Amino acid sequence: MLSGINMLCFSASYAIALGLEIFGLWNRIQLRRVALLTMASAGVFAHTWYLGVRVAETPDAPLASHRDWYILAAWALAVIYLAAKFYYRKSSMGLFLLPTVLGLIGASRFASTVPLATFQAPRVWGQIHGLFLMLGTVAVLLGFVAGLMYLIQSNRLKRKLGGGDRLRLPSLEWLERANSRSLGAAAFFVAGGFFTGILSLLARTGDQNFVPWTDPVVLALGAMLLWLLVAEGFRLVYPAARRGRKVAYLTVAAFVFMLLALGAVKLEDSLHMAPTDDLSVEAEVAL
Amino acid sequence: MNLRMIGCTHQSTGLDVRQRLAFDGTQTTKALETWQHRFDGAEFVLLSTCNRVELYAASNGHPTSPTSDQLIDELLEFHSISREQVEGQLLTLTDHDVVSHLYRVAASLESMVVGEPQILSQVKQAYQSAQDIGATGPMLHELFQSALHTAKRVSGETQLHKHRVSIPSVAISELASCVFETFDDKHVLVIGAGEMAEETLRYLHDAGTPQIHVVNRSQEHGQQLAEKWDGTYHAWDQLWTQLSLADLAISTTAATEPLVTAADFEARVVPHRHQRPLFVMDLSVPLDFEPSVGEALGVYLYSIDDLDLACQRNRAARAAEFPTAEKIVLQETERFASEQHRRETAPVITSLRAELEKPKAAELKRLFNKLPDLDEQTQQEIERFADRLVNKMLHPPLESLRDASQNGTPYGLLDAVRRLFRIED
Questions:
Q1: ipTM summary value
Q2: What radius of gyration, in Å, describes the C-alpha atoms of chain B?
Q3: What DSSP letter does each residue of A119-187 carry, written as one string?
Q4: Is 0.80 topped by the overall pTM?
Q5: If you measure CA to CA, which chain B residue comes closest to A161?
Q6: Which of A160, A162, A240 sits opposite B275 (nearest CB)?
Q7: I want to staple B32 with a disulfide (CB 3.0 to 4.6 A). Which of A122, A265, B135, B389 is the partner?
């Protein structure tokens, strides 16, 4: 039966969990929480199983293609959501995290399934590059979600609507900390991903002068890295930038840069595409 | 019974009016002395808290007894407020309604945070203040004593007071916790050293181990409070410095003007905070912080009325206990009323008994004179017969009086009895 698990299974589980989170805005019956945890756990289980099968079938999975990459990022966020649900029992974080998870799964449907060239030679640089960028993306998304929650929570408190049973968000202090840490982590991972990408490219081409700085993907990722480094530096040097709303805006802006980078990868990615004759090595990823 | 109450509460009157009608200790004394002098023989108690300003008056129906309108005029005149400014916002109660209302207030059923214990001590304090200057008398004494008794019954016989709740506890647990994850390492500034400040510190102490800093005009009280909660006292001129350092500020002073204006806050605090979040609970009435202070970046300013949503949730959580509490209030109100009516009928009953005792004694005397040979035992038997006869004759009218007293003083019946039996006052 487990061999039949596909993307639809865990997507549906997450979608139902999101529906239950939304239902919680009106009613917080005990059964809802049990159902929510069951659906989220089922989704993570199916998601993990799916990735496990992919690893068993494809040696470079779960980072063998753009699609794999999105699904792995979605899995990381789903695991974080499930853990948060146990730690912050009554929190409404799912209203923000689950759409992000579903968004990544949805984006994966449009992502390329062609094996990435960066995994062909040498394999280790490609793996590290993909992993760093995936973690960087997860950090940016977490920062974005925390930033969004911070702005909403701050706005509610300003309008004297704080507390309450329906929409329960973590404290501003917690969100500010999550924001700052995710910004720092994003800067670290994206920098790592950027430089390992260059190393991977150099190792693959063997040409020391072959760094396509004007390539849209390199430019977009470089801009995102620059923004993250500037934002992190700004945050460290300027005390007010460490405070809630400022750092929330920084992470929201980082999310926009991330979208630009992902858009560039989708539209103009020549760097990660293997040469035509190499494609014969790997079959189209069956999903 | 001639009881009156006029005033305003958080349920019917906004904070803007309440803070204009509020009395501090000095004003209370001055006002009570004025009214006592103006309405000879009347009794007064003034209850002024952050949620209510209520003037209780009792009189014996003397021509100089104040009417509700006169009491309203006096209250407004004291604060130089016109009637138009409070149109439709003042509460006016008489007799039974006054009793029931005070019982509900003392039992904290009328409080923003149902079950909070501060209101009972505030009621006691209000009565004590009136008693100290001789503004009370037997009527209000009995009313307030019975109110305290009712509050104790509600506290003992329901679960309303099971978990200690208060306005500060609701504010901290429901709102401050939306800002801070923990209170352990927070710089907590308490402005003022009153009961509300202490209640706040009590709750914070249970919630964590914050660094407590007390700023108060009176060094003695401020130091006492700081020492009690392992905090540090700072002189009044350190207010701005402490506000710059604070994470959480609770203001509970009795100042009649705002202590922290938006302009001062902007100039003396904002530059030092670097937009660090500051949660301010202004539990004072009148307010200590100008509302526009809350517009500063990172500042979350809550006044007593802003806690309304959180308090409604608290009230809903305790709703199951309300019927029992209401039943107690009803029982005690009826008991108080019966007692009052009984007191009003008691003189007539005593006179009636005395009026019948006189002919009985005269007839017995005449009989014993006519029959001098009666032995002592027979005489006692005859006396007992006469007593029983008088009692049996008195029983129906007394029962009727007692029954009629259940629904109020039976003035018509009392008058009829007086006329029938020629009883003189």
A1: 0.79
A2: 29
A3: GTSSHHHHHHHHHHHHHHHHHHHHHHHHHHHHHHHHHHHHTT----SSS----HHHHHHHHHHHHHHHH
A4: no
A5: B309
A6: A240
A7: B135
